[in-house]
Amino acid sequence: MESLVKKIRALRKRLSAKIRNAKHTKFINRNVEYMRRIAVNMYKDNLKNKERYQDDKRLSKHGKKMYSQNEEDGIILEIFNRIGTTNKTFVEFGIGDGLENNTLGLLLQGWKGLWLEGSAKSVNSINDHFKSVLDTKQLQITEAFITKKNINELISSKIKDKEIDLLSVDIDGNDIHIFNEISVINPRVVVIEYNAKFFPPVMFTVDYNPMHIWQGDDYMGVSLKYLEVEFEKKGYKLVGCDIAGVNAFFVRDDLVGDKFLSPYTAEEHYEPVRYHLLATTPSPTYQAMEKILTSCVKNSI
Questions:
Q1: Maximum C-alpha span of the chain
Q2: Over the Cα atoms of the chain, what is R_g?
């Protein structure tokens, strides 16, 4: 019995030491994260003080983060401060678990809209935790893997207005192909991710593949120059990018006037990818490079 008591005491001592170490590690990690956030905020403030960002028409200087991934919340607010709103309706696809996207902040300001998401787990979480806005239809959500064939039906089954204020696109691959297919809505503003690794004048886009899933490499999305050219065909002007080099912002031609910084080109508004501001860093692979080369050569001819 005495031997057992000693073993229990020894075990208790080892467990206590592990608990103390775990708490100490947690404390260190928390403080390291605080320091990282301070450093990032200082970097952003210093960057925005540079001459490039002194023109009030440059949207990136107006960036602020509420629930967006980077500073898209502030830029979206600034755009609508300039052009006004109509029905305050949005459509966003690729919204993740609902806690970090480009339209959650708009819900807090009385907007209404539709979320499309391919992850059943994320949609279930949203259904469980967004009941107040889902019950009133202020927010509607549909689980679907988005393709060119189903996008118009997915939107029109929930959104009846032809003109909406905002469309946000983030599916890490087929973004421009899906956007070009949309005909059931006429958004006044479009937010869409671009692959900032490919700076102007590079014309790059992934080939359309209805089963595309991003592999974490740099074969994703579309270059900013490619977006500029494609959106011009659809009647939109490139008016800015966020400072992290993630999202591009387009406003419909009839609303631009002299409210935004011209020229409306990728060369003027391009923001380089700033990986230190992002959670993920795409890495090049030989498999991705073959596809990238094919795309750029084809689109440059």
A1: 88
A2: 23
